[in-house]
Structure formats: C-alpha cells, structure tokens
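Incident log, support desk, overnight shift.

02:14 A customer reports that sequence design results differ from what the structure should imply. Their input is reproduced verbatim below. On-call engineer (initials T.W.) acknowledged and began investigating.
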C-alpha cells in the first residue's frame, strides 16, 4: 500500500489545526482507496476535552455500523493516545498508519496486542511539525497529552 498521499492529507489537516491555533495533530480514514473522513485536533478551537485528531475524523465520518470499519485504514500524524486507541478498538479499525512516534509514544503495543496492524512511517514532516509545535507551545502540548511539564 502506498501511504504517502494519505499521510499528506493528514498533514494538511494538521497544518490547518495549527493555523487555527490548535495542536497540529490529525487523522484521515481511508476506505477502498479514498478518504472517507478527516479531522484534526480541535481541543483548543472547540474548548473540547476529547477532540483529538482521530476523534474528529471519526466524527466527520459519521455514524456507521461497526462492520463498516473492517477494511478501513486510519492514518494519524502522531501515535494514538489511550482515548483514541479505545475508539480505534471500539469500531474495529484493523490497520493504523502512524506518521511518527518520537514526540509521543501512544498505545501502539495495546493496538498490536488486539490484532491491529500498526505501521510507523517515521515521517520527517510529521516529526518536524511536532518538534516546532512542542518547542513553541510546551504548555499546550503537555495539556493535550495529559501530562505535567518536566
């Protein structure tokens, strides 16, 4: 599977979120070779506790029965947190492609233990986007991942 165009679509969403003043993390859902849902972290923009990129993309995809997700690939610019991992497992998304996990290591092991195919691209654009954001917005970054600054 050629992942570059779908990760680029996710990166475009991430940049949109960053330009809106939010955290530049995003996701696209792909079914049958086309994007069926896209979203970006909107915690800041919507004063939300839960609108991470994956959650926003799932919301944008709309209400679907669980079986609909059996052949969906989820592309995310950053390793999924525990909340987003739970949603991935709840809906039975079988394949997750991660832009990078150096900035944040999410629940990849849990996804794998539940039979989800997980690929990490170590994408330089994803890494650079997060490095700049974390450098310039440390407090917001730690808030978003639910941690205290070092």
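02:41 Re-run completed on a clean worker. Output:
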């Amino acid at each position: 599977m050629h992942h570059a165009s779908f990760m680029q679509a996710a990166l475009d969403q991430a940049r949109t979120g960053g330009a809106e003043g939010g955290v530049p993390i995003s996701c696209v859902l792909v079914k049958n070779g086309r994007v069926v849902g896209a979203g970006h972290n909107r915690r800041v923009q919507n004063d939300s506790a839960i609108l991470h990129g994956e959650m926003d993309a799932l919301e944008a995809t709309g209400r679907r029965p669980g079986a609909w997700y059996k052949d969906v690939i989820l592309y995310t610019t950053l390793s999924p947190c525990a909340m987003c991992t739970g949603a991935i497992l709840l809906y039975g998304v079988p394949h997750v492609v991660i832009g990078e996990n150096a900035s944040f290591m999410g629940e990849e092991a849990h996804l794998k233990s539940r039979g989800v195919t997980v690929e990490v691209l170590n994408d330089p654009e994803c890494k650079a986007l997060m490095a700049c954001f974390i450098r310039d917005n440390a407090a917001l970054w730690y808030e978003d991942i639910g941690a205290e600054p070092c």
